[in-house]
Amino acid sequence: MQFDILYNNKHTAARSAILKTNHSNIHTPVFMPIGTQGAVKTIDPEVLTKLNANIILGNTYHLYIRPGHTLIKNAGSLHSFINWNKSILTDSGGFQVYSLSKLNKISDQGVEFKSHLDGSKHFFTPEISMDIQRHLGSDIIMAFDECPPGQAEEKVVRSAVDRTTKWIKQCSDFIKQNRPFYDWEQTLFPIIQGGAFPSLRKKSTEELLPFSQCGIAIGGLAVGEEKTSMFETIDLMNTLLPKDQPRYLMGVGRPTDIVRSVQLGIDMFDCVLPTRNARNGQLFTSQGIVNIGNKAHKEAFDQLDPNCKCYTCENFSKSYLRHLFNIKEVLGLRLATIHNLSYYMNLMEDIRNNIKRQTFSEWSMKYLKKMNDFKGM
Ligand SMILES: [Zn+2]
Fold first, then answer.
1. What phi and psi values does residue 302 have, to the nearest 5 degrees?
2. Ligand 1 centre from 46 Cα, in Å?
C-alpha cells in the first residue's frame, strides 16, 4: 500500500493524498460507506461506483457469525462474494464483541462472547480476528483492540491501552507468519486507545507506531465522551502521529465533525450516520437536516436539496419521498440512502478540492458557521 500526499493546507493540518491499494486509488480525505454484513444497506455496487466510492467497510464479527469466513473464502474472497472490485477495510470485530454480544468476558487471552443471534458461545483472540480477516481478503485489516466506553475511569483505560499493545504484537506476528490467501496485499492498521487522557494517548501511540506500516487508526473516540475532549484528543494526535501515513478516525461522524477533524489532519472516516439515518427518514442537506416524514412535506413538490445532483434529488420530490416513507415502501429507504451518501461523498470532494486550491481554511470556516445553525449537522 502506498500513501502519496498531493497537497498540504497552509493554515490547518488538512492534507489531500492518494492511498493506493491493489484494488483502487483512494483520494483522501475519504468517507468510507459501511457495509457491515457484506452490503451497504439497500445499495448495490453499481450505485456505489456512481457515487465514486473507492473503499467500503465490512465487519469481522458479523461476517464470522453469518455467513462465516470459510464460506466467503470458498466464494473467492469478500470482494468476489459481494461483487465489489475496489478496496475493502474490515473492522476487527472487537468493538462489536463488546457492544453487541451478550455476556462478553475479556481477559489477556481474548474475549469470550455469546452470539447476539442464537446465544452460541465463541472466543476471539487477536490471532482469530486476523485469521478471519485473512480469509475475507480485506485490503486493510484492523488490529484487535480493547475499546472501553467514553466515560471509563483512567485505570480502566490504562488497562485497555496495555492490552491493546500486547495484542498488536500478536496481530502483527500472525500476519507475518501466515501468508495471505490471495494475491493482493493486506495492510494492518494498529488502533490507538487512551480515551481522553493525553498521557495514555502518548503511551499508546509510542507503543503502537512501530507496528504501523502504512496507516494508523484512532479508536476510542465518539464513544460517549464530551465533544470538546474528542477534538482536544484529535488535536493532540495530530502532533504525535507521523505525517507520511494515513490517519483513520474510527466512527466519526456528523458532517461538521468530519470538517473539523480534517482541519486537524485526519484522512479517513467511517460512520453509520448517512446510511442509518437515511433509513429513519433523516436526510442531510445543504439547508440542514430534513425529516422527510414531517407533515410539512406532504405537498412539497420541490426537490429535497436544491444543491444536490444525486439521482434522488434530480428525479423525485420531497412529497413523493414522504409518501414512500409513509407507506413503508423499501424504495424510500433506497432513495434516501442514495441521497445521504451523495451528501457525504460530495462533502469529501468539496474538502479535497478546497485543499487543492488552498481555499480550505476559509471554506471550512464558512461551512462550519453555516452548519452550526442547523441542529444535527
Ligand atoms: Zn440528493
1. -85, 170
2. 17
Q: How far is the CA of 338 from the centre of ligand 1 (A)?
A: 7
Spans of the chain below 50 pLDDT: none
d(CA 8, CA 356): 8
Question: What pLDDT score does 16 carry?
Answer: 98
| Nearest by Cα to 246 from 55, 46, 52, 11 | 55
Residues 6+ apart with CB under 8 A from 55: 21, 24, 26, 30, 32, 86, 87, 88, 89, 139, 140
Distance of CA 349 from the midpoint of ligand 1 (Å):
15
| Ligand 1: centre distance to CA 293 (Å) | 16
Q: Rounded to an integer, what distance in angstroms lies between the CA atom of residue 183 and that of residue 264?
A: 35
CB-count burial class (<10 Å; 0-12, 13-18, 19+) for 226: exposed
Distance set, CA 105 to CA 60, 112, 354 (Å):
18, 5, 47
Residue with cell 455496487: 45
How far, in Å, is the centroid of ligand 1 from the Cα of 307?
A: 8
Q: How far apart are CA 73 and CA 77, in angstroms?
A: 5
What pLDDT score does 149 carry? 86
Structural contact between residues 8 and 244, judged by C-beta atoms closer than 8 angstroms: no
Output the CA 353–ligand 1 centroid distance in Å.
Answer: 20
Q: What is the pLDDT of residue 100?
A: 75
* Interatomic CA distance for residues 29 and 225, integer angstroms: 24
Domain ranges within the chain, ordered by starting residue:
2-271, 278-371
Fold for domain 2-271?
TIM Barrel (3.20.20)
Provide DSSP, 122-175: EEE-HHHHHHHHHHHT-SEEEPP-----TT--HHHHHHHHHHHHHHHHHHHHHH
336: left (phi over 0), alpha (psi -120 to 50) or beta: alpha
* pTM of the entire predicted model: 0.98
* Catalytic residue numbers, as ranges: 91, 270
